[in-house]
Design a protein that fits this description.
GO biological process, one term: guanine metabolic process
Radius of gyration: 21 Å
Protein name: Amidohydrolase family protein
GO cellular component, one term: cytosol
InterPro entries: Amidohydro-rel, Metal-dep_hydrolase_composite, Metal_Hydrolase, Metallo-dep_hydrolases
Strand order of the largest sheet: 3-2-1-4-15-16-17
Pfam family, one: Amidohydro_1
Oligomer: single chain
Shape: globular
């Protein structure tokens, strides 16, 4: 049990908007009943007597939010990066995911994933499992024990995948229903189901209709992929000639925002119509820059998304991305935007450290509610970073220290982590 009121002391830095950092040096961050009560330079007299956790000169930031990661792919991160998306799926992803039919293998593989997620700076995540109901439940059991707040999905595929993974439409819908019932029966505190059609090429219209029925019955959110790769987009046009654009292939079934909270990964080639529909429906975009580079998809026009007021967060997209470390994802987002600006579209200025930090905290956190900031009333997710390992010959201001974290930090800098006001064990 955490204290009803406790206080963290250190160098506090967070975002209210994408343009600037809010910084309070050697300040106090107050948690009351699992939410942020306030940030203070001088602790108010009325707070006297409450426990203070003094982290000295460390940085205190909101917990990072990973809007898109594949747990079963963690085993082959850093491998097969010389292929494009569709070949990569056939060669790497599908054979590996088939192994999760064995709970013994799933236990072994997911243990590595779960342990590293716990040690990272991530406090919230949207996670893909596999088509296997029991293995997905096992993953959820393991994530629940970490104390992290996650949404985990059993993947749906009833076409265009290997025979050893494909489910018949009725089987896929039925297994998903049983999985939802199992999850509700287990009454997790921090682990929640999210509908997960892999992507339009792997899901028939009939399956999408069945998933919408489940979405309405249980009021579930949804995660999938969108406009990631040019070959994929052409394939969707063949499979769904009635769709105005890729996103419309989801929206025709009511699985694209609006009354179905939705996060779509990538959006590398989203055109004006798709962007307008995402804005109208409140769809969240999970920007996965390293994955987009590794599997030769391209560079998403993130500046355009931000300018048009879309919800944009960050995704590691392991194993398209090589690491769950969201600091690296932030750095890749800045670097990729510079390449896009220099090489293909100088109308879209490169992203800043302030913007990518916002995306990895408050931007993506909004998918979970009032999450990702230290503004009063936000859920108390916090990460304490000790950057003393990263020696420097001169004093640095707080902004500079955080910017270095974006490029240099890993799990070694994570000194402490809190989710909804509860401290998480890092060991």
């Amino acid at each position: 049990m955490s204290e009803p009121i406790f206080i963290l002391k250190g160098n506090i830095i967070y975002s209210k908007n994408p343009a600037e950092f809010q910084i309070c040096e050697h300040g106090y961050l107050v948690c009351k009943d699992g939410r942020v009560e306030g940030v203070y330079q001088t602790l108010p007299f009325k707070m006297g007597g409450n426990p203070v956790h003094d982290y000295g000169d460390s940085l205190i930031i909101p917990g990072l939010v990973d809007l898109h990661i594949h747990a079963p792919q963690y085993s082959f991160r850093g491998l097969g990066m010389d292929m494009e998306l569709l070949e990569w799926l056939e060669t790497n992803t599908f054979p590996e995911e088939a192994k999760y039919e064995s709970l013994e293998y799933a236990q072994k593989a997911y243990r590595i994933f779960v342990d590293n997620m716990r040690k990272s700076a991530t406090t919230r995540a949207c996670i893909f499992g596999t088509v296997h109901r029991e293995a997905t439940l096992l993953l959820m059991d393991m994530m629940e024990k970490t104390g992290l707040y996650t949404m985990v999905g059993k993947v749906n595929m009833d076409r265009n995948c290997p025979d050893y993974l494909i489910e018949e439409t009725a089987e896929s819908a039925g297994e998903t229903l049983e999985w939802i019932k199992d999850v509700l029966h287990r009454k997790y505190e921090n682990t929640h189901p999210i509908l997960t059609p892999r992507f339009t090429p792997s899901c028939t219209d009939e399956l999408m209709e069945e998933l919408k029925k489940l979405q309405m019955r249980y009021q579930l959110p949804l995660q999938s992929h969108l406009s990631e790769n040019q070959g994929e987009i052409a394939w969707v046009k063949e499979l769904c000639p009635w769709a105005e654009f890729y996103g419309d292939a989801y929206d025709r079934f009511g699985l694209f925002g609006a009354d179905c909270p939705t996060v779509m990964a990538h959006c590398v080639y989203s055109g004006d119509q798709e962007i307008a529909r995402m804005k109208e429906n409140g769809v969240f975009i999970a920007h996965c820059p390293e994955s987009n580079m590794n599997v030769s998809s391209g560079i998403a026009p993130v500046r355009r998304f931000l300018e048009r007021g879309l919800h944009v967060g960050i995704g590691s997209d392991v194993a398209g991305g090589s690491t769950e470390n969201l600091f690296r994802a932030m750095a890749h987002a800045v670097q990729a935007s510079k390449l896009r600006w220099r090489i293909s579209d100088d109308s879209l200025e490169a992203l800043t450290a302030e913007e990518v930090f916002y995306m990895a905290t408050k931007g993506g956190g909004a998918f979970f509610g009032k999450v990702g900031s230290f503004e009063p009333g936000y859920e108390f997710d916090a990460v304490v970073l000790d950057d003393s390992r990263l020696a420097h010959p001169q004093p640095l201001d707080i902004r500079s220290r955080l910017e270095r974290m974006i490029y240099l930090a890993d799990e070694r800098e994570v000194q402490a982590k809190y989710v909804k006001g509860k401290e998480i064990s890092l060991s």
